[in-house]
Amino acid sequence: MAGARRALPRAFYHRSTLEVARHVLGCVLVSESTEGRVAGRIVEVEAYRGEDDPACHAAAGRTARNQVLYGPPGLAYVYFTYGMHHCLNLVTERDGFPAAVLIRALEPLEGLEIMARRRGVRAPERLASGPGRLTQALGVDLRLNGHDLTRAPLWLEPPPAGSRRPRVERGPRVGIRVGRERPWRFFLAGNACVSPGRARRRVSS
DNA sequence: AGAATGATCCTCT
DNA sequence: GAGGATCATTCTC
């Protein structure tokens, strides 16, 4: 239980969701377990905000599944989907208002061997480049739903000292059928660890 | 390079 | 009973 001494404070999450989404890019997500410490730089996120956002899990109102989304900022909202994958969100805004930032991709920084073992692949750019991939690489599952992200074993830290302000691009959210008119996906321009698909269209020539 | 598919199970209707 | 904020693999152009 080393520690989350440098963890981002609750105030970081207690802002508008779009603001948190932009500012969390470049921050470092850290996970500790008996297997060791794993960390990565956040390179892709999406915002989901309010009951009037049709793509937000709160669109149909409060249920047992999404209650953490309505909780105080700085909690982890973890859900299980497609019979296979977990997704990790950071709860934002005031207590009682349902909103969160989905973490979609990391650039691995620490614990690459552990990630590779959990994932069954070795290429660094494939270890955590997708919402399901990164939860597997970090060992995140439903047990961490509701976890306080200002503490171990899962927390966020500010961007490493000396890192430049990243260039952020935005676009439509991925994998949803409604709410596509809200361009609430944010990612680091040109980063190899952004999830495959829409964002990484290569220019063929 | 893009489309289709199977895996697999929690959550809500 | 259906569908889902996905992924890896296998197909078809």
What does this structure look like?
With 205 residues, the chain is of the alpha+beta class. The protein has five helices and eight strands. The protein has helices spanning 10-13, 17-24, 112-119, 124-127, 131-138; strands at residues 28-33, 36-49, 76-81, 85-91, 99-110, 154-157, 168-171, 185-188. Strands 1, 2, 3, 4, 5, 6, 7 and 8 form an eight-stranded antiparallel β-sheet that branches. Helix 3 (112-119) crosses helix 5 (131-138). It binds a DNA duplex (13 and 13 nucleotides) through strand 3, strand 4 and helix 5.
Tags for this model:
single chain; 205 residues; alpha+beta; DNA-binding
Question: Strands, helices and their partners?
Answer:
Layout: H1 10-13, H2 17-24, E1 28-33, E2 36-49, E3 76-81, E4 85-91, E5 99-110, H3 112-119, H4 124-127, H5 131-138, E6 154-157, E7 168-171, E8 185-188
Antiparallel strand pairs: 1-2, 1-6, 2-5, 2-8, 3-4, 4-5, 7-8
Helix pairs in contact: 3-5
The protein binds a DNA duplex (13 and 13 nucleotides) through residues 46, 48, 55-57, 60, 63-65, 79-85, 87, 89, 102, 104, 130-133, 142, 173-176, 202, 204.
Largest sheet: number of strands, sense, barrel closure: 8 strands, antiparallel
Head-to-tail CA distance between termini? 51 Å
Structural class: alpha+beta
Unreliable stretches covering 5 or more consecutive residues: 200-205
| SSE arrangement, N to C | HHEEEEEHHHEEE
Helix fraction by DSSP (H/I, runs of at least 4): 10-25%
How many helical stretches? 5
Shape by Cα distribution: globular
Radius of gyration over all CA atoms, rounded: 16 Å
* Quaternary state of the chains: single chain
Calculate the mean pLDDT score and round it.
93
The number of distinct β-strands equals: 8
Strand composition percent: 25-35%
